[in-house]
Amino acid sequence: MADHQRIHPIPEPEQEPPVQKPTVPLVPRGSFRSEKGDPERQQLEPPPLRRRTIPYYPPLKPPKKRICSCKRCLCCTCCLLFLLIIIIGALAAAFYFVFQPKIPNYSVDSMRITQFNFNNDMSLLFATFNVNITARNPNKKIGIYYESGSHLSVWYTGVKLCEGSLPKFYQGHRNTTVLSLNLSGQTENASELLQSLQVDQQRGSIPLNLRAKVPVKLKIGKLKLMKWKFLVKCKLDVDSLSANNAIRIRNSDCKFGFRL
After folding, report:
1. pLDDT per residue over 176-210, tens digit each?
2. Burial class (CB in 10 A: 0-12, 13-18, 19+), 213
3. Interatomic CA distance for residues 74 and 68, integer angstroms
4. 69/71 Cα distance (integer angstroms)
5. Nearest to 187 by CA among 212, 149, 151, 158
6. Cα torsion for 253, 138, 257, 129, to the nearest 10°?
7. What is the DSSP string of 3-28?
């Protein structure tokens, strides 16, 4: 028998892998993008920069011990102030009950005018008053030292007519002192003053104001206290301001005040 011919399969030539084309977006450009976006742009555009977030830490609460110490200091301060007020009030009450301080009294008893005339052109007014003032100290255990540097003045419609001062003296317990004071002065531009003065003099009622600022020192027992300043304001109503004539004081009201 003839040899059987063997058939061997011929290997097929190797095929190259197909070249993959870039994927085309499902949605054409210019229309709405898909959720994943455009793959071509994703390859071209750089990835977005990531911002670094700074963590937020809430402020730390102060320790409870510091709060407690501040509360204790505040409570101690309030207690000390309250105790100091009680001590001062107790001392003031003791001083009042022991010494029984009373306000001094002042009054203008009489007034005499020795000079009250104008110059030729009525531009200047020359005035000299003699005023008797009574000062009363009603205190049993408090004396008053009247120091130098006092100032008294007499005013009419806001214009000062004359001025003077008190002498330096000591007024003892429950003492009444009558002072005779000479006050003199010169007033400029007195022509307008003369017109209003003539109207009031025809009515028979001329308002005057006497003001006094007197530095004093109080004596309690053997202790001499710091300097105070007595303020006295007296409203007077006189019938006339003619020189060398008896002047009647129709009304007198004096008010007293003081300051350091």
Report:
1. 999 999 999 998 888 888 888 889 988 889 999 99
2. middle
3. 10
4. 5
5. 158
6. 50
7. PPPPPPPPPPPPPPPPPPPPPPPSS-
- The two tokens of residue 73 are 């200091």
Beta strand 206-220 with 175-188 is unpaired
Q: Which two tokens stand for residue 219?
A: 């004596």
Using alpha carbons, select from 127, 111, 146, 170 the residue that is nearest to residue 232.
146
Residue for token pair 């004093």:
216
Q: What is the pLDDT of residues 150-169, one digit of tens each?
A: 999 999 998 999 999 999 99
CB within 8 Å of 209: residues ≥ 6 apart: 154, 155, 156, 233, 234, 235, 236
CA distances from 120 to 126, 186, 191, 208 (A): 12, 14, 11, 25
- Window from 15-19, 199-203, 255-259 with minimum mean pLDDT: 15-19
Phi/psi of residue 89, each to 5°?
-65, -40
* Count of CB atoms situated within 10 Å of the CB of 115: 14
Distances (CA, A) of 75 to 72, 84, 136: 5, 14, 49
All structural domains of the chain with their residue ranges: 105-259
The residues pairing with 121 across neighbouring beta strands, listed in sequence order, are none
106 phi and psi angles, rounded to 5 deg: -135, 145
Model pTM score? 0.66
Q: Tell me the residue length of the chain.
A: 260
